[in-house]
Amino acid sequence: MQIDGVEIEDTFAEAFDIYVSKFLITAATQKFAKIAADETVGFGSSVISCPAEAGIDDYVPPNKTPDGRPGYVVMICHPKKDELEHQLIERIGQCVLTSATTAVFDAMGKEADEQLKIGFKLKFFADGYDTEGKIGGRTIYKIPLMSGDFIIEGELGIKKGVAGGNFFVMAENQASALLGAEVAVDAIQGVSGTITPFPGGIVASGSKVGSNKYKFMHATTNEKFCPTLRGAEGIDCEIPEGIEGIYEIVIDGVGEQAIKDAMKAGISAAVKVPGVKRIYAGNYGGTLGAYQIWLTALF
Amino acid sequence: MQIDGVEIEDTFAEAFDIYVSKFLITAATQKFAKIAADETVGFGSSVISCPAEAGIDDYVPPNKTPDGRPGYVVMICHPKKDELEHQLIERIGQCVLTSATTAVFDAMGKEADEQLKIGFKLKFFADGYDTEGKIGGRTIYKIPLMSGDFIIEGELGIKKGVAGGNFFVMAENQASALLGAEVAVDAIQGVSGTITPFPGGIVASGSKVGSNKYKFMHATTNEKFCPTLRGAEGIDCEIPEGIEGIYEIVIDGVGEQAIKDAMKAGISAAVKVPGVKRIYAGNYGGTLGAYQIWLTALF
Amino acid sequence: MQIDGVEIEDTFAEAFDIYVSKFLITAATQKFAKIAADETVGFGSSVISCPAEAGIDDYVPPNKTPDGRPGYVVMICHPKKDELEHQLIERIGQCVLTSATTAVFDAMGKEADEQLKIGFKLKFFADGYDTEGKIGGRTIYKIPLMSGDFIIEGELGIKKGVAGGNFFVMAENQASALLGAEVAVDAIQGVSGTITPFPGGIVASGSKVGSNKYKFMHATTNEKFCPTLRGAEGIDCEIPEGIEGIYEIVIDGVGEQAIKDAMKAGISAAVKVPGVKRIYAGNYGGTLGAYQIWLTALF
Amino acid sequence: MQIDGVEIEDTFAEAFDIYVSKFLITAATQKFAKIAADETVGFGSSVISCPAEAGIDDYVPPNKTPDGRPGYVVMICHPKKDELEHQLIERIGQCVLTSATTAVFDAMGKEADEQLKIGFKLKFFADGYDTEGKIGGRTIYKIPLMSGDFIIEGELGIKKGVAGGNFFVMAENQASALLGAEVAVDAIQGVSGTITPFPGGIVASGSKVGSNKYKFMHATTNEKFCPTLRGAEGIDCEIPEGIEGIYEIVIDGVGEQAIKDAMKAGISAAVKVPGVKRIYAGNYGGTLGAYQIWLTALF
Question: A220 near A206, Cβ under 8 Å?
């Protein structure tokens, strides 16, 4: 299948179950909301070695937030529910509560499978001086700080979502692949309920599970897809002719449909970039993940 | 003591020993270097609950970097050396190696007490396909990726530095205290070898050690310094008359002198903001930290 | 009238007729769309001495633009229609056509009073090598450039709109007034069809018409509202007691209702900032402008 | 001549005399200094149709500015001295004086050929309420505003500089040429005394003088260098084989050496980008400009 002259490989992205949280960080200004959100989602590209996968889902203007201030919806994801709860407490406690002028509200709403008492637990920081209140029908706690009060909703919803939606942008050189990946990330930013947790939304280092050589490595470079190893001894290169640059986009989302929407939006944008030649996806032969998202079925 | 009509309290910041790493992340463009640096230093405000304290020290233009590309010097700090090494491997491996077009070089240089073999360890990701080389006299490893090669210097220097340098900006309202804190952070940004690890460099939630009420809490709000608790029952408020907003700046640095320079630069900037009334500092009576940095001795 | 304890003065903003254009700049990435938009709206705060009043109305994600790429809606305004046309040709020709990967589409749609043949005129830059085409039912021209093709819709709609909507944020100090102004600008950013053309959306220098002392000056500082002149000789200070900082927000919009919506959104946000004490508005006694927008009638 | 495998054409950039101003905009925070600088240099890509050529030269940290606040050095250029003076008064008056918390200081220093009384003229805005003072040995005027005082140095230095330094980045596709141009701009940003006045520093639309077809056009597309016109009827294409994307960098500077340094820095950076194949430069056969800067002589 071809779109705008770009080959869409007849293969699938293999995706996994993951627990997903989605909450809103507001602040006095958009700038301070962004600062808090960025700190909160940092060191959050992949649970291979990061303590969570995290990203910014969306900006919400003041007239659409519970407290009438600008905010960012943030998603934090983890395969284990108790680890997700732990991450929520640590990341909100250390990265949002400590940030100037912030507040936290649930953003999962009715989609939630379950409510975690994150606000309830964080209020112990107030050492007994917290007060309970209501904002727009939501139960919130006020935690007095040196700078004023931090406000957090008592419960934040989580749900079972999907991790590891993905596609590869393959191009005739690295710059085209990179520009293709950038435009894909911009497009996915517009799909609600999804994040691209890697830095800038882009994966420079698509990997394989395990290692051929080192038993202690859980993941190593995907040598068959490294352009600089083409023709090297012992390499069975699988990169199609004419491809010299490959970037991967990895997507976590609130559900399979959100992942599909994001993949479609991203691929549709990437194929418009001159020099982008093929769209590919990563899988493990269907042996590991609960979801198989076929590229050609998206269109 | 007064500067520009602002009272500089006759007290001291109590600071601690910490292990500090300092390395340079370069990328094709300043934008991609910033993306990688931001991801690397995220979730890194305080080791109370973050896995490290981290921040951006400085921007380095292309004509001053080993590979002629724009870069950011990043500092990662931890009280334990083995935890620092672990954080370097995880954060560089997950947040820089995965970022588009990046490379990593040592930035501690001759100041280092010790060299950690971070590049040497990360090269196992290449699954045997790494190559060794030289850039500007430095030993580097090339790790083939799907997008091209990731380059990292074999060893990164660390040293014993100082954590927890601090001062409080006290103002007649929250907005003045916040603007005072912002200008202080901008000023400290210019002091090489220091970072302000909290979100945007500012702490909204200065805390006390332990809790009056909950045995399981290691740190809780500093209720005697919470403006919204002034006059509340059981509160022995220590906020001077006329102060309604307080933000704290916390500084980690390569040494005591760097911390002093940063505190002086930050305070000098903050006192210029209308509405800022007092500069204060946090300590534990000298019982916990190795360093006592007296505010009035800075000037 | 009071909102959240802030006095809303019983006065009105006096606003004027102005011609307004509204168009969409798209580019390969959000970054390049923003670069083009920023250059296009620069040197565009007030027609007192700028060649136009200009600003960014809104970001539009890729799935909502005619060419499926990210874009910014930009508004350019001028009291004279022929000057507006001239500015459109110069600003699009010099700031968008010259920008990497850009395209321009009409964003006024059915609201337009009139169509200007901006694309038709700019295509002469192609020196005869332009081609006509269609994108999403719109007639566009392709202008070949060294970097590829620049695409612009043949006609861009304009309409009679309103300039000079305004309010003053008065606070107990400069920092509070500034923070109040910043949050107001963030809130107005969410109101479609309006811009705040001054730098960062904020006016530091509210002025009076003419001069008491210099015949050659068309506008000079509003000395009765300058906090640093309170109590100076010959000054009949009109700043209420307790006010030490004042910033003005000026709004241009596609119509009176848009201005009202923006004023309401901005004031509602500003009154939430601690230290903000009064909201005021600027007028000329109703002698100059076609519109009187009463502050208290907004709520 | 080849650098890193990229062909450096044996040709020259033809550059022109221009009057250059260089001044420093400081503000309370780096953010507000940037807002003012961006507004000031907007609509300033080329004097073909913009009222000036303008750009940001450099960021200056608080400890290096006359008033101890963060700032940006801005350059504004015009072929005519009286027009430059006019632009300085209008742009500083409308874009800096109106910006929150700003001040303006000379940044040309001893390099100046001449001093223009810009501060002296702008102080009439104070309507007689200005006061004279000294900051770091500089004569400054304080102009009372609603938000506080605007401070500007009495005289700003200008000098004869050089406009139109340039080179072309030619690549195997548009994405590589664009990435090559981006890295060149990042590198030139580090060369003091130079600006790249086009949007984002990059010219997408290199032009020829005049028109083959329309007498009323002063500049039109350079059809011989448009990749999408290769092979079109009547086109004598001069684009080398294998080149599909071309971006131009245009540089203005305080003198010929600064332009040379900037061209060398930019080219050195661009040739490192995969897919960049040739560096070229634009000239008029030496008939129009005072300076011939040969590419190969830079290395």
Answer: no
**Among chain B residues, CA nearest to C176:** B175
pLDDT tens per residue, range B169-210 = 999 999 999 999 999 999 999 999 999 999 999 999 989 999
Nearest to D195 by CA among D100, D282, D74: D74
User: Does domain A2-14+161-298 sit in CATH 3.30.450.30?
Assistant: no
Q: Which residues, in sequence order, are bridge partners of residue D293?
A: D13
Query: What is residue C33's three-state secondary structure?
Result: helix
Q: A97 and B204: CB-CB below 8 Å?
A: yes
pLDDT at residue C84 tops 90: yes
Q: What's the complex ipTM?
A: 0.96
Cβ distance of D176 and A178 shorter than 8 Å: no
CA distance B231 to B246: 17
- As annotated, the residues of chain C forming the CATH 3.30.70.520 domain(s) are 2-14+162-298, 18-159
Residue A288 pLDDT: 87
CATH of D2-14+162-298, one of 3.90.800.10, 3.40.50.10950, 1.10.10.10, 3.30.70.520: 3.30.70.520
Residue ranges matching CATH 3.30.70.520 in chain B = 2-14+162-298, 19-159
What is the spatial distance between Cα B276 and Cα D244, in angstroms, rounded to a whole number?
58
Q: Which two tokens stand for residue B18?
A: 């910490």
Q: Residue D187 and residue B70: Cβ atoms within 8 Å?
A: yes
**Are D275 and A179 an interchain contact pair (Cβ–Cβ within 8 Å)?**
no
Q: Quick one: which of A149, A170, A162 has its CA closest to A197?
A: A162
Tell me the mean pLDDT per 10 residues along chain B, length 299.
96 97 97 98 94 97 94 98 98 98 98 98 97 96 96 98 98 96 96 97 94 93 95 93 96 98 97 95 92 97
Q: Tell me the whole-structure pTM to 2 decimals.
A: 0.96
Q: What pairs with residue C137 in β-bridges?
A: none
- Chains interfacing with D (3 or more CB pairs < 8 Å): A, B, C
Give the burial string for C82-100 (b: 16+ CB within 10 Å, else e): eebbebbbbbbbbbbbbbb
Minimal CA separation from C153 to chain D, in Å: 18
Stretch(es) of chain A classified as CATH 3.30.70.520: 2-14+161-298, 19-159
- CATH number (3.30.43.10, 3.30.70.520, 3.40.50.1820, 3.30.390.60) of C18-159 reads 3.30.70.520
Q: Compute the distance between CA of residue D11 and CA of residue A166 in angstroms, rounded to an integer.
A: 46
Give C63's contacts in chain A (Cβ within 8 Å): 187, 190-191, 265
Q: Do C274 and B175 touch (CB under 8 A)?
A: yes
- CA atoms within 13 A of residue D281's CA, in its CB half-sphere: 31
B34 vs chain D: nearest CA distance in angstroms? 13
Measured CA to CA, the distance from residue A230 to residue C1 in angstroms comes to: 74
The pLDDT tens digits of the residues spanning D46-69 come to 998 899 999 999 999 999 999 999
C125 burial level (CB within 10 Å; 0-12, 13-18, 19+): buried
Verify whether the Cβ–Cβ distance D200 to C227 is below 8 Å.
no
Residue-level length of chain B: 299
- The beta-carbon neighbor of C212 closest among D97, D127, D174 is D127
What's the gap in Å between the CA of C94 and the closest CA on chain D? 7
Residue range A19-159, CATH number = 3.30.70.520
- The pLDDT value recorded for residue B288 is 87
Distance from CA of A201 to the nearest CA of C (A): 13
Closest CA to A84 of A23, A19, A37: A19
Asked if B128 and A213 come within 8 Å (Cβ–Cβ), the reply is: yes
Q: Best residue in B176, B182, B271 to probe C by mutation, most C CBs within 10 Å?
A: B176
pLDDT at B77: 98
